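INFO batch 0412 | record 1 of 1 | parsing
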Amino acid sequence: MQPGIVRGMSRMSDIFEDIDALYASGDSAAVEKAIKNAIDTQFLRTGGIDADSASLYNELAGFYRGVSRYAESAAAFERAIGIFEELGMEKTPGYASVLLNLAGLHRLRGQLDEAAGAFQKSKALIEETGGKNGYAYASVLNNLSLVYQDMGRLDDAYECALQSLDIMRTAQSAEHEVATSYNNLAALALRSGRADEAEDMVLKALSIYSQMSEENVHHAAALTTLGAILFRKGSYQGALAAFTQALELTERFFGKNVEYAVTQRNIASVYRALGRVEDAIVHQRLALEAASEIFGEGHENTRTYREYLDSLIAGGGMA
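INFO prediction complete | emitting tokens
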């Protein structure tokens, strides 16, 4: 399940529970098929112009975003938005949630101004509908925090993340939502040079994840943060273990997406620090393959991955 997804009741709830079970199994092909089948069934029932259809397109868009199929994700989000607008539902929490998820896609594509604008619009809609103390509002604050991090606005990012955590605690939100807030704060503390504070925060997040009865899709993000903290402190074996576990979870839930590529790059950096250049090259090649598939050969991100591989080879590894 993607964060902020709009979901219906009764029959639709059963559909989404089935989809969640497929997510948990790690069968991404089955997830995509189940959502598409639900969309087709709903079209036969209603013609596809109803709030449940919008929810399903939103779910499909969230799936595509998770596996880094960004063009398809954007098209599905736009379809969900179009349905809400055709129904005159632009002032509803559901519409705000779709904007929230679309903004997340903008951020992943590096479109930071568009992401911030969409998050702010979603935030305003949630405020208008009286949802300032609920999950959706906390989620938009968390996501705004991530955008502000990318923009280098660390103080604004920390304030948003802290507000989100306060809402999650007060609302007695699901454990994984509180854990996500702790991880966001940890990442911010690390970027501000406060490694000990960052480690304290991320260990709180990881403690929550470790006690869950089922593995959570966001666990990998916290492990990645821990890996970065340990790497910064020179604890390379601990960093390698954290990144390796994060990689396994990411690939299980989402396949070889952007986070997979980033984590392979992180593992390569650890091996380089350990003096194991040949192992570093193996993992950086895998990172480059994933980046090339996602972004294309000529993209700036792909070139960055290739340049790092070249530097590893030039530094003493075999081609």
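INFO post-check: Residues 28-46 form the longest helix (19 residues).
INFO record closed
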